[in-house]
């Protein structure tokens, strides 16, 4: 059984072995929390001189993947305290956020996953709009700011009926309960804070529909949320400087820029179509087409190749791009010693620019 308050202990090696190039150590008794148990991340740090890479639980065993088998019989084991505290903040934050959706909208959490940078909960509804997310996030943070006690205790399976559990799971024996005082009571074996104020903040990042009937909520808490806020603030500042506008006017400026770009794109497309029509008129008098082009779109290039092919012309055209160039052959005996792709009778080949002289020489010699 994990002692949640111990961050350093003397272990006794029960087994150590190599499997598929990976190293593993099993202790007689461990205090390292396993990865994936209860949806949360596992502990890290050291067993003696061996760095822990992962902690897995299975078949009533807890196995530690390490970077070396150079481990003494009775190693000093150290748990990464900061990581454990970050995971505890994130796990308690999940309990609070899940209960907020349940209390406000009777929406239940069906699964929870904790990642290294953010976590997710899957909710059993797709009728979750921005207002509901905002209200649930607000309630969750009120609970954090009230600095409520987070109790952990064990009860028997018979005593479970007396508790107002958010979600009940059928288990036998002694059951660990995590209770956010006056707000949430859950069955949980995971790591948690002592008081909600330790979490700092709970921030919903985004929401998306998943599996047709669920909504996945992405969130972060504590230092994780702060780091994410700092990164996003820096990005917004950079965009604001690039567009020479204040942050409050960014959306308007971006929409205006998008609309201008669409207009310019339409103008450019129209001009390109006229240009390519003139080129096709010029080439219509040629028996064999051998032309190289720059500064036209791939779409325009492909359209021109098909028009020349449909006019019964034979030969090839080449489009020079920044890092590659494309060859299109049509109605032609010209073939290259590489595999091309056929689009409605036109064969296209793509090459790196360093092949330009070699390929053009081969084409011109045919």
From TrEMBL:
SMART domains: tRNA_SAD. Its main location: cytoplasm. Its cofactor is Zn(2+). It is found in: Cytoplasm. Residues 1-231 form the Alanyl-transfer RNA synthetases family profile domain. SUPFAM superfamilies: ThrRS/AlaRS common domain, Translation proteins. PANTHER family: ALANYL-TRNA EDITING PROTEIN, ALANYL-TRNA EDITING PROTEIN AARSD1. This is Alanyl-tRNA synthetase related protein. It comes from Caldisericum exile (strain DSM 21853 / NBRC 104410 / AZM16c01).
């Amino acid at each position: 059984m994990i002692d949640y308050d111990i961050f350093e202990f003397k272990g006794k090696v029960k087994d150590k072995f190599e499997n598929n190039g990976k190293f593993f150590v099993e202790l007689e008794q461990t205090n390292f929390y396993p990865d994936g148990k209860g949806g949360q991340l596992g502990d890290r740090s050291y067993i003696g001189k061996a760095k822990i890479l992962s902690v897995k639980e299975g078949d009533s065993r807890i196995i530690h993947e390490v970077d070396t088998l150079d481990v003494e019989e009775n190693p000093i084991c150290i748990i990464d305290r900061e990581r454990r505290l970050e995971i505890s903040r994130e796990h308690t934050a999940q309990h609070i956020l899940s209960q907020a959706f349940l209390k406000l909208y009777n929406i239940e959490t069906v699964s929870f996953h904790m990642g290294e940078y953010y976590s997710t909960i899957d909710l059993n509804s797709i009728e979750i709009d921005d207002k509901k997310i905002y209200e649930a996030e607000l309630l969750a943070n009120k609970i954090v700011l009230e600095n409520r006690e987070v109790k952990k205790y064990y009860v028997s399976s018979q005593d479970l009926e007396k508790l107002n559990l958010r979600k009940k799971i059928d288990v036998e024996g002694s059951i660990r309960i995590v209770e956010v005082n006056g707000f949430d009571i859950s069955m949980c074996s995971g790591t948690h804070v002592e008081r909600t104020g330790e979490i700092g903040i709970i921030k919903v990042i985004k929401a998306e529909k998943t599996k047709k009937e669920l909504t996945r909520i992405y969130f972060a808490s504590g230092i994780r949320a702060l780091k994410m806020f700092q990164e996003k603030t820096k990005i917004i500042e950079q965009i604001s400087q690039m567009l020479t506008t204040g942050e409050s006017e960014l959306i308007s400026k971006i929409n205006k820029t998008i609309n201008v770009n669409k207009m310019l794109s339409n103008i450019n497309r129209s001009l390109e179509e006229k240009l390519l029509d003139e080129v096709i008129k010029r080439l219509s008098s040629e028996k064999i087409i051998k032309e190289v082009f720059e500064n036209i779109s791939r779409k325009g290039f492909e359209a021109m190749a098909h028009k020349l092919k449909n006019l019964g012309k034979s030969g090839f055209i080449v489009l020079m791009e920044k890092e590659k160039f494309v060859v299109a052959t049509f109605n032609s005996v010209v073939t290259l010693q590489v595999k091309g792709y056929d689009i409605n009778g036109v064969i296209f080949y793509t090459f790196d620019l360093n092949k330009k002289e070699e390929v053009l020489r081969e084409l011109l010699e045919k």
